[in-house]
Amino acid sequence: MSPPSRHHALQFRNVAVRFGGVQALDAITFDVEASTIFGIIGPNGAGKTTLFNCVSGVIRPMSGSEIRYEERDLVGLPVHRISALGICRTFQTISLIREQTVRENLLIGMHLA
């Protein structure tokens, strides 16, 4: 009996990003299996945020890059379409709107563009 096939919910193939003369991502290729918890760690400047910006549509990777979610190509989709699929990112800021409650600040992230 063969093992059950693995379903890759998120796939990265040759993801590359260049900012002027800086190669932020260079042919990143990996899969994230469905129903798993997956983390990316690394030092400052390693490209973690750039990769998150690519998968969420904030940055468009270079030609030849592929990012797929549930077999759907994400490269080139507008941010609001990617967000509607359930993929979004949070920002590394502690700035809150002081006039709002914690709950109201959290609800800001619930709105799709």
Structure description:
By secondary structure, the protein is of the alpha+beta class. The protein is 18% helix and 27% strand. It has helices at residues 48-55, 79-84, 102-107; strands at 8-19, 22-33, 66-69, 72-73. A four-stranded antiparallel sheet has the order 2-1-3-4, with helices on one face. A hairpin with a 2-residue loop joins strand 1 (8-19) and strand 2. The mean pLDDT is 87.
Give a short overview.
The protein is an alpha+beta fold and 113 residues long.
Oligomeric form = single chain
Strand order of the largest sheet: 2-1-3-4
Radius of gyration from CA coordinates: 16 Å
Label the overall shape. globular
The total beta strand count reads: 4
Give the count of helical stretches.
3
The structural class is alpha+beta
Helix content: 10-25%
Distance between the termini: 47 Å
